Amino acid sequence: MKAAYSLFAASFYATALITSSSVGATEALSIRGFASAGFVTGDNQFEYTSASNTINESATFGADNTIGLHINAQVNDKVEFTSQLLAKGTADAYNLGAHWGYLAYSVSPSFTFRAGRLVLPIAAMSEYIDVGYAMPWVRAPAEVYSASMVNNYSGFDLLYTLPLKDMQLTVQPFIGSLPKASISGVDAAAKQGAGLSTALHFDQGSINASYIDVSDMEITYLGQDLSVGITFISLGTRLELNNVLFMAEYVKRRSARGNGSPETTVEAWYTTLGYHIGKFSPHLTFAKGEPDSQQRVLPAGTPVPTPLGPMPLPEAMIVDPAPFSYAQESITLGLRYDMFSKVAFKLEAQEIKPTGNSWGLFAKDPGDKANLVSFAVNVMF
To answer: Which end of the chain is more exposed for a tag (fewer CB within 10 A), N or C?
Structure first.
């Protein structure tokens, strides 16, 4: 039972990415699904960005609620279509859309060309960040998975898989445009970005690395338009040795505004240690994110430029808000219970501490720290 969800994650990854291995070996049309339902409570009273989730109340049912359908249609022995439809709870509503939607052409058993709407391979869990069953946590560590303001792109990639004895190396160069995305009042989009993602899979786990370069990202915040060049580097590993689970990732994002402003850097990491005891999997996660310079807080009443001239701020505002820049650390204690086949129950307690002058990933100053308690049920079908 110890590797049930990790094996599902590997299966989900293989079906979604390594399409060439399944062409000609699957049904003409296959539909699989996943769903999550959760509840979050705590002492935070302000909107909190946690990767693809937004939590803005001290008690809410909506943030972790997700249902998705993964559709795969084999067109012929060389071409197949893959799509993922996702309905996801937000702070006060639900969003429905096509998370994926691409055509894959199998050039050879080890080489595949894909084009359409694809997931930006930012980190190890990016491909199935909304598939709760594939992860030990209720939500992926926010410090790492909130570093990118865009999670999808429209373009194409080349997927090359190379068997290496008992291992498999995957190399994925990609290029495309990044559609507009909105997170905590920050809008971001880019006409072109490119990168390279690699992953080494073996019996005990995987090692992954990615590099992404976006030369001209358009960011809008408080009515101001900014042109920002961004580079993104990530490294990660997941290991399962006997009953022990070890996961760790590191990301570094550099942003250059190109208007004489200094370059800013955000670095983030997490480490997770877990242990499988029958159907139970307790785990502990330490995470931290920090910029290379302190954020500035403008108090209420500070004059700021507007199209109508200088106007006083009605409330305090932080310069370079999350997720553009943030400094926080957190500790999460969790328990996963695989009660039934393809059904997992999760309970987590988390303490989040903004550091320096930052508000962390909160939209407003949460004080010295905030505490969250989360419960979720994840299923696959």
So the answer is: C
Alpha helices in the chain (DSSP H): 4-17, 142-145
Cα 343 from Cα 381, distance rounded (Å): 9
**Bridge partners for 32 per DSSP:** 70
Cα 140 to Cα 13, 51, 94, 125, 160: the distances in Å are 16, 7, 20, 8, 27
Encoded tokens for 295: 């954020």
Domains of the chain: 37-61+128-380 (2.40.160.10)
To which residue do tokens 């939209």 refer? Answer: 363
**DSSP characters over 285-332:** EEEEEEESSPPPEEPTT-EE--TTS-EE-SS-EESS-TTTS--EEEEE
- CA dist 258 → 33, 128, 296, 321 (Å): 44, 34, 20, 19
Cα four-point dihedral sign 291, 293, 299, 300:
negative
Which pair of structure tokens corresponds to residue 109?
Answer: 């058993």
pTM of the prediction?
0.84
Query: pLDDT digit string (tens) for 278-331?
Result: 999 999 999 999 887 766 666 666 776 666 677 777 766 666 666 667 889 999
